[in-house]
Amino acid sequence: MATVRSVILAGGQGARFWPISRKHRPKQFLSISSSGESLIQATARRIAPLSGKDHLYVVSNALLAPLIREHVPHARVISEPVARNTAASIGLAALYIEREDPKGVFACFPADHAVKDEGKLLAVLREAAGLAASHDVLVTIGIKPTFPHTGYGYMKRGQPIAGNGYQVSRFYEKPNLERAKRYYESGEFFWNSGMFVWRADVILQAFKEFMPALYQGLMRIRPVIGKPEEAKVTAEVFEGLEAISIDFGVLEHARNCALLAADHFGWNDVGSWDAWAENFRPDELGNLLHGDALVLDCRNCVVHSEKRFTAVIGAQDLVVIDAGDALLVCPRSHVQDVRRVVDELKKRGRDNLI
Amino acid sequence: MATVRSVILAGGQGARFWPISRKHRPKQFLSISSSGESLIQATARRIAPLSGKDHLYVVSNALLAPLIREHVPHARVISEPVARNTAASIGLAALYIEREDPKGVFACFPADHAVKDEGKLLAVLREAAGLAASHDVLVTIGIKPTFPHTGYGYMKRGQPIAGNGYQVSRFYEKPNLERAKRYYESGEFFWNSGMFVWRADVILQAFKEFMPALYQGLMRIRPVIGKPEEAKVTAEVFEGLEAISIDFGVLEHARNCALLAADHFGWNDVGSWDAWAENFRPDELGNLLHGDALVLDCRNCVVHSEKRFTAVIGAQDLVVIDAGDALLVCPRSHVQDVRRVVDELKKRGRDNLI
Fold this sequence. Notes:
By secondary structure, the first copy, chain A, is an alpha/beta fold.
């Protein structure tokens, strides 16, 4: 098989991981395991067998470039002047890749997911790359649901293409529990993993069709890549772009979307403190303690306290995260709202806490 | 009326106010109002019209003596070598007072209560002092319940003695809600305020009868008060004493207990973080925030965060208290258990956190 390039999308702020995740050291640079390996390091290591050392790109905010070079020294860093969500990041990466191979296949990865069965992931990615190489399709890795999760987007499987590849008959946003149950029981629905595989020419064609403003901007950048004016032109273009995800901007409109149906390979999008906790084994009462913490009469609590002593008494399903200068207390049912704290801090100009 | 002496019992550790209250700066030295006045300062100021500057005693652990002199410079400090609960403290104070006046009336106050109507308190104390001067009774200030509180001990009113003075027909420990309701509805029950008024000779006689070991110890100390060997003898005696409260040791057994029935004068024993919060006005959702705190979708929460920024999301009836080096998170329903954290820290030898 021809070279499969990999693009790690590392521009996110990880606002749902406040207060540990901060603007200048967002979630992807944090570790969730006792190995000390950061999420982005783990992502790069996992896909190394696919793309080797020479074909890994990381797209991220220019401010984070030094941190990326520290964590993933072999990556080719593509710097965004401002964050404009995943469509713009992928568009920029596509320009770099088509310069090397206009029909080059590349896979896009969030920087901050966890995967347990890495061998299975690689097999899935290789099949997806084959599908993308031989068909003009936009492939999303779809994961067979193991329970009616309300925190993920879903895709419905359409006509088979080849092997585990299917057309996507429709994308669905995060459902409520009732709908999640219907999706789960039908057997036709898959979680949208946020991992994509396609050819540079195919995704650029999709931008041209569904995001013409982004496409025009990319066409301005294309001729100056590697030239002195690249940063200036990219800054001008990005300044005027809307921040739109690849899902909303392209995939929900394109008719050539495919999904690669995968059994669950221990994938976790680590999208919240609750999901983060799933990577660890709690004690027999369901409590997960990190650092200097004491719980009395507690159940299913998550306590992360590396900078001081924390005592929690008589609580259930509570998340307590201390970062030294800032503290979060929140029931597990509200972990998706953590980004609201960051929004509020922005409003109040508390930049040192963001 | 003859001089009424006052004794502030300031030996408590305030373990239920961990992590703000610590062994070397317990609760009574902390402020609960915006005035910055500590609880012990407020107590001393309130009773100044009763006892003047010259007749105020503070009994406390010897280690706290410098702090007491700082907060209440005019107090006569009686140092205990080790804490042996209120019976021993009151016994020691009685020795000092009988040296000046064997039939001297004195009032005992916890150092850490809050009172809103100070004029009413003084009137109540003066009536109690008159009762104690003219009758051989052990007077407890009883407060007419304003609701079925489960956090206080109760006293049942017996035969009238004079004015608002009644015999106590029985003391009752903290009731469950059902019993608290019966007590409240009967109209015959009063909260045990922990404020006592009696003569030195009467309480010493009660010790002789119901706590003979304590009494014998006191009789060893009596002849050496003011002499070089006082500290040594007191240390020897206290070492061998059981730690017993005046309620368990004397009042529940004595037949000459009286109560002075008082209407509620805005008294609060500040016995827990929950009771502490009652001294402040919460916002319209019942949240009480001190320091740098943000709550989103919270109700009836107490957040005290003077050393860092704290965000609480989606919580109800939760207490979050940060002390810089230690943090407490606990539902309001569990605030009485805070002392268990202190016990656990003692067990683990974490002395710097106690």
